[in-house]
Request: fold
Amino acid sequence: MSETKSLLPRQVADAYVDDLIALDPVTGTYLGVPESSRRLPDYSPAGQQALAALIRTTLARLDEAERQPGADSDAERRCGRLLRERLTAELAVLEADEQLRAVGNMGTAGHSVRDVFTVMPVTTDEDWSAIAERLRAVPEALAGYRASLELGLERRLFGAPRPTATYIQQLTEWVDTDGSGRGWYEDFAAAGPEALRAELDEAARAATGALRELRDWMRDVYAPAVADAPNVVGRERYARWARYYNGTDLDLDEAYAYGWAEFHRLLAEMRKEAEKILPGAETPWVALAHLDEHGRHIDGVEEVRAWLQGLMDKAIEDLDGTHFDLAERVRKVESRIAPPGGAAAPYYTGPSEDFSRPGRTWLPTMGQTRFPVYDLVSTWYHEGVPGHHLQLAQWAHVAENLSRYQATVGGVSANLEGWALYAERLMDELGYLTDPEERLGYLDAQMMRAIRVIMDIGMHLELEIPADSPFHPGERWTPELAQEFFGAHSSRPADFIESELTRYLTIPGQAIGYKLGERAWLLGREKARERHGDAFDPKAWHMAALSQGSLGLDDLVDELSRL
Reply:
């Protein structure tokens, strides 16, 4: 890190981003840093140690920065508190050697080394030259990742068996995407220019070969070694991960009870809405199954992509000037189809810092070509507008008023997911979900987030199912019971439910942030409304809230209440 004597917290935070990008060029690519485009991170134990050392150095420099004159201003205080909380939470994860057992259906080094190519520019020969060089870096990056997993085996820090099995299936698909013997990297490189054809093909084959070697080792060595390990993490590890994803030390038993309270509230609402669709339906999910067959659908993959684009475009036109004030560059968002072989849930990638790459929503099709409308509308309010896109694009737009850290890598999952779930509710409040199909789909999506709180905490802590539960009261949660419970209280198909359960086992503590984050956003709005009375301006409050940059749940309610 460059000399930071007498710097203030926001300057320390921005210096940290520069140094992080040097260690993690994947992060640099997502931010749109051209110099990052030819390299990949060091995923070996040495690479993780370097990251931990950077964090410790930055925390020491933050101590000094917070003693400087001017460090007590609102802007500096907010940034310094976020930086300290985030780095402390990340350091706790690193010092617990969690990276030595990072396997699962999302978020691993293997996923990062593949997914980063989907956001790289592909316009010029120079762009493709960078892609070829990064492809050549894939074998070393995967070798470093494997070295970390090998050290985990040596130290008996085992990944969970179920996520391991799913990960091996994903690697197999990436190695041979369609049964023809060509891997994902080769398919991706095939779109490059003829002038670089030989170079791209050779690099892509080497990348696929390294991926195949990783898959074979995972299958033949790693999976047998972890076969008897638990799939759940227990209270201590779960609390560490919950702090990392939520930005607060949660009362996990209170959060579990809140999940059940939301379950019962939403179930009552769903029953009322289901009666409008299929009178006398035994459960709301019977009505949703009816919609799977007889409800409105979009047929075709390109057709659904275009339809989702239109949904977001309309939301922008309707909301801009009435409930938000959006800069022109924030108004652009793209709908994309996700590459095959990933998790089943839709997702969003934010714009580059200069907006040369726009924000994008991604729909995994899971092989489908027919898509129920009820399952898409509120989800795209969540992923696109007014959800993730408005928040993350607004952060990028006002970045000059924040630290770079607050606008980019300092994001707290529960803040982000809480806003996106709040955005779904906001669209319901504004009257965009009056159609019974769409509103029942929205309530089903809300129910999934409540169930996540119940299942994620319940199975990892092996808690007791309460006596008033309609499902196995008095028993203790297991992943098998969680999958059965989810299947009985969701419209999602079996492969989606399977993918979701594996996700919760892969990244414990993340899935609870949707409902807990939404609760924080709603409470912050209510306190601001009470403070202003009749003078409360929702549009002004939304724009001020979206311009604060990242906050953990420790700070979110307090800061929202002040607006």
The mean pLDDT is 96. The longest helix spans residues 125-154. The chain has three domains: 1-96, 130-229, 241-514. The first strand starts at residue 297 and ends at 299.
